[in-house]
Design goal:
By secondary structure, the protein is mainly alpha-helical. A two-stranded antiparallel sheet has the order 1-2. A hairpin with a 7-residue loop joins strand 1 and strand 2. Helix 1 runs parallel beside helix 6, helix 2 packs across helix 4 and helix 4 packs across helix 6. The radius of gyration is 16 Å and the shape is globular.
Length: 143
């Protein structure tokens, strides 16, 4: 039991942080999607300080963005891939941390969209950045 709990927490944290890095990269690469996501989050949360599960339940585009991000480098589309999440989190060998990871991604991404204005710095274009993927590490980037 303790071993499973450790797997859930450590696996979920690593997965969530790596997924959030890719989500932010893809959102910066697609500013219209970023703007639509920021707009939805801010319209629903308004001036709230904390997020509730009910708030997340109202965020349809946010849900699509999170689930789409579970597919490495997949374009964000208007389809929810719940079947894939169910497969990843099922069976004896399924990912024990998937629910923890998804919940972490949802809450952190919502806070990031609600409390910060995102975009590339003035004068920097997406094409000027080189994204380097290291499978055993998190994302790094160079100008």
């Amino acid at each position: 039991m303790i071993s499973n709990l450790h797997d859930i927490l450590s696996g979920g944290i690593d997965t969530a942080s790596a997924s959030l890095e890719w989500v932010m990269i893809e959102l910066l690469r697609h500013p219209l999607i970023l703007h639509r996501l920021e707009t939805e989050v801010r319209q629903i949360l308004k001036h709230k300080e904390s997020i509730t599960d009910e708030d997340l339940g109202e965020m349809k585009y946010h849900c699509i963005t999170v689930f789409s991000s579970l597919h490495p480098h997949a374009p964000h589309t208007d389809r929810i891939v719940r079947e894939d999440v169910r497969i990843m989190g099922s069976g004896r060998r399924g990912c024990l941390g998937i629910r923890f990871s998804i919940t972490s991604i949802e809450f952190v991404l919502t806070n990031l969209m609600h409390k910060f204005d995102w975009g590339l710095p003035n004068g920097i274009k997406w094409e000027d950045l080189e994204i380097i993927e290291h499978p055993e590490e998190n994302v790094s980037y160079e100008e």
